[in-house]
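anyone seen this seq b4? input:
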Amino acid sequence: MLDDKNTMLGKIFDCLGESLDIPPSKYQQAVDRYTAVGKHLEGGEYSESMGVPAIYTQGSFRLGTVTRPYREGKDADYDIDLVCDIRSPKNCLTPEQVKQEVGKRLDSHGTYSKLLDQEGRRCWTLEYAEEDGVGFHLDVLPALPESRDVRSLLETAEASQHLVEHSIAITDKRKDGTYAWDPSNPLGYGLWFDVKNQYMFNQVATLQKRLIAEATTVYASVDQVPDQLVRTPLQRLIQLLKRHRDVRFDGRPNSKERPISIIITTLAAEVYRNEANPWLALENFVIAIENYATTRVIHKRAGEWYIPNPTNLAENFADRWNDAESGRAHAFFEWVGFLREDLLGMLSLSNIQEINEQLQPVFGVAQVKAAFAQFGESLQTTSSTGNLSMLGASGLLGTGGGTPVRKHNFYAD
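predicted toks r here
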C-alpha cells in the first residue's frame, strides 16, 4: 500500500503548495510594479554606459517559486528581485559608483524616493505599503557585465559558454564601508533551472494554464497566462522547502543563520529526478542531502564548504558558511533533520487527521487548513467517479479525517 500512500501524500503536498502560491491578481500587481520601476531605470543616464540598461527579474519571480515569507509568527511581504545591469565596462567604474548611480536614479522619481529604504549590502529596496494585507519589497541589484577575461576563465572551467556569457559583476558594500565586486549570473541561472524543470513543465503547463484562465478574470485567455504561474513538482518542492524553513526557524536563536533560498533552490534542482509529485521529490531531496558526501551536491574544498553557482563557479553560495564562528552549516543540516522528523515521519501515520495535525505546526495553520479543504474537494471528485478504493484500503481515510467544510480555491483572490 506504500504506492497508495505516496499518491495521497503527493496530492496533499500539491494542495499545500497551492495554498502558498501568490494569487494571480497579486502576481500581476507585482509585474506591473517592477515593470514601471524598470522603465524608470532604463531612462537614466549612467557613466560609460554602452546602451539602455538591461532590467530583468531574478530569484523566485523568475523561477516560478514565489512563496510568501513567514516571519515573527505571521505571513510577511513578498520579495521581488530585480537586476539593473547598466551596461558599462567593468574597468571604467568602481562598484561604489555603480551602486550610487542606480540609487540616485531611483531617488529622482517622486514616488520611488518616498519608498526607498536605506542602502543595503547589495541592493536598493523599495518598500511598498500593504494593500489587502499584502505588501511588496522590491530589491534592485546594481550590476555590470562581467569582464571578458573573467568570462573566458569561467568558460574554460565550465565548458558552458551559452550560460557563462550572461555573467555579471554585482556591487557589495562590506561591513567596513568599502565596496567590492562580486560575481553572479542570474540570467544564466534561470536558463540552467529551466533545463532542470523542462520535462515536467511540458507535462503540466497546458492544463494548469487553462485552469488559471478559467478561474480568474485576470487573464482573458490561456495564452495570456505567464509561465511563471505554472508549478511543476520541482517548483512545488522548492516552495514547500522554503516555507518549512521559515516556520521551523521562526523565533529560534539561530533564525538569522537559516538556509538561504538560493542554496535550497540549487540543491533541489540538482537532485531532482523528474519525480511526478512534490512528495516523492521531497523524499528524494532529504535522502540525497543526507548523503551529500556520496552524491556530491555539497562539496568541501580545502576544508571549506562550497556550493557553486552552476553557471558561475566563481560564486560560492555557501561562502558565509565559512565565516569565523558561523553557524550556517550547522543550521542547514539541522534543518534537514527537521525535514526528516516533520515530514518523512508521516509515512508511519495512519489517517488524514494525523497528517493534518503533523503539518500545521511546520507550515502554518491557515495554509494547512486551506490545503486539506482543497484535498477534500479532490476526494469528493474521486469518490463521485468511484476511484477511492486504493486510498480507503490503506486505512488513510480512517476516522478523524473528516471532510473539510470550507471550500478553498487557490486562484480566488
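Confidence is low (pLDDT under 50) at residues 383-413. The first helix runs from residue 2 to 20. kinda curious what u guys think
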